[in-house]
Amino acid sequence: MRPTTCVVSLVTLSLLHATSAPLAEATSTDDSYPLDSLPREVSPKGKMECPHVDLVRYHGDVVRYHKPVLVYVGFKERLTQFEEVVREVAMEVYGRPPKVIHHAGTYNCRRVSGYPVLLSEHGLGNGIDVVGFDFAPARRVAPGVPRSLRREFQVRLGKHWDATSGVAALHARFLRTLASRLVQKGIFRVLLGPAYPGHKGHFHLDCAPYRLVAI
Ligand SMILES: [Zn+2]
After folding, report:
1. 115 CB-near residues (< 8 Å, 6+ apart)
2. What is the DSSP pairing of strand 127-135 with strand 153-156?
3. How far is CA 214 from the centre of its chain?
4. pLDDT, tens digit (0-9, with 9 covering 90-100), for 22-64
5. What was the pLDDT predicted at 31?
6. C-alpha to C-alpha distances, 214 to 7, 173, 177, 200, nearest whole angstrom
């Protein structure tokens, strides 16, 4: 079993089988979240039934999503904070914000892959998979930004995370700065990325009742 797998198993077990003390330990901040008390344990087989939560369609306030997301109503404000961080880091690196955030899904009633008794936060509309960012053309680029980036361009985790040269290295810097800023900000409790198995091409960000960072 991989070390990260052990971590999530322990954290998950402590949450599923104990009460407030391990919960406080497992989360990094003192804030509570409306879905914290919802059980995440599900039967390992058969059709999934996800708990009812209020879902909203959301387009993005600060930066829009390439297509609207369907999320738990309380998760929407976390996404707005996420967009603010995206905007801030993009301004620092490129001198302009992205036109859209590309995602690979939010609400999806399913189990966590590899953990048949654990409800995915996607099953509550309480998580998002972010694959990249599209930038619109600009009349001029900010000082220090390559002129080629006047044109529209795309940044993708799957393509740019490990880049070390040319414009692609700038995209890597953007993605990595964004990742570390998100970890600092505490908007999300679970932040997974290329460092976590199965997440080479996306950031998974959610507000589960436990903390897990492997980005
Ligand atoms: Zn995900």
Report:
1. 8, 9, 12
2. antiparallel
3. 11
4. 333 344 455 899 999 999 999 999 998 999 999 999 999 999 9
5. 81
6. 10, 18, 15, 12
State in Å: Cα 46 to ligand 1 middle.
21
**What one-letter code names the amino acid at 179?**
A
Per residue in 137-196, pLDDT tens? 999 999 999 999 999 999 999 999 999 999 999 999 999 999 999 999 999 999 999 999
**Token couple for 79:** 């996404």
Quote the number of domains for the chain. Answer: 1
Q: How far is the CA of 91 from the centre of ligand 1 (A)?
A: 26
Enter the tokens of residue 157: 């985790």
Q: What is the DSSP letter of 125?
A: T
- Ligand 1 centre from 188 Cα, in Å? 13
Element (H, E) at 55: strand 55-58
Per-residue confidence band for 97, with pLDDT thresholds at 50, 70 and 90: very high
Q: Tell me the torsion sign for CA atoms 22, 28, 31, 36.
A: negative
Domain that holds residue 175: 3-214
Fill in the amino acid letter for 173: R
Q: 75: which 2 tokens?
A: 């998760």
